[in-house]
Amino acid sequence: MLYVGVMTGTSVDGLDVAVLEVADELSIVAAETVPLPATLAESLKALAVPADDEIVRLGVADARLGEFIGESVCASLRRWGIPGKDVRAIGTHGQTVRHHPDAEPPFTVQIGDPNRIAEVTGIDTVADFRRRDMAAGGEGAPLAPLFHAALFRPRSGMRAIVNIGGIANVTILPVGSGVVSGFDTGPGNALMDAWSRGCLDVPFDRDGRWAAAGNVAQELLTRLQDDPFIRRPPPKSTGKETYHLGYVRAACAGLALAPADVQASLAEFTAWSIAAAINCWASEASEVVVCGGGRRNAYLMQRLAAHAAGRQLLTTDALGFDGDALEAAAFAWFAHRTLQRQPSNAPQVTGAEGPRVLGGVYAGG
Predict the structure, then answer these.
(1) Which regions of the chain are under pLDDT 70?
(2) Which class is domain 146-310?
(3) Do you find a cis peptide bond into 50, omega within 30 degrees of 0?
(4) What pLDDT is stored for residue 11 in this prediction?
């Protein structure tokens, strides 16, 4: 059976579309990233920051993103020569505009109207995957660990799968039927991207060249390493509500630093925080396998390798899975599990009271 997964991540840099074949083994049949229209991308970024008239702006963005996802799925399927009737369902994550697992009560909000996706495509659509886990006492994130286990369970030893998107998360995979664990480690690309936009008006630091041209400012790094989320034990999840440009500026207060030195320090902090999580909670892991956009940052990968000394560092691409398509493919798999009434959360990861079938189903045409 074929399923489509769609995902816009915390970096808001595009819509990832992936087709997953669910058979005896899972395989990604096709994948691409569709650029978001500039006005839509800016409206989504703006919703991450409290401001006036939020409900109207959220409603408009929700509808526009739903329509864009539906149209993009139709266009991608046409390009790949896959008839819509051959797709069992679409699994859509949507765009997170708020994630507050520590609120009372906790809540999370993803937009991208699944009614419009189902209407435009005529394909059954499964959406709203995080809130059921949260209703069961979990943090609603990360959800990827069960999918990582289905793809990358090691034949021997222990393996850590690291997804570096806007936020970084790790999945810890023991051999055999051992218990899967995982959690958000802290910032992925979020701080580096925010500083690049704020200083250079570019969306990201390509290959980490700007960071590589700077020098790590030890006092700034020390301040960053004192982050309370990094020190908190799992289960835990976070988002750009915490890691944003204001966070960087607050950490830099009173320090006279060259912008490139700040970028170098942010890259160092990001790599250190990921490695620290692995060293603490997956000390037996011999392999660290990286997916997500952060794996394309050569400087960040270099620093991660330095902090994860003694462990083999590779990407999911080396294991035969496109590291850009993996998250979208995960939501295709979650859609399959929802329709089969199988749980998609791992309670030991999210902190939920037990396994839950996630997401709601919106019938196609």
Answers:
(1) none
(2) alpha beta
(3) no
(4) 74
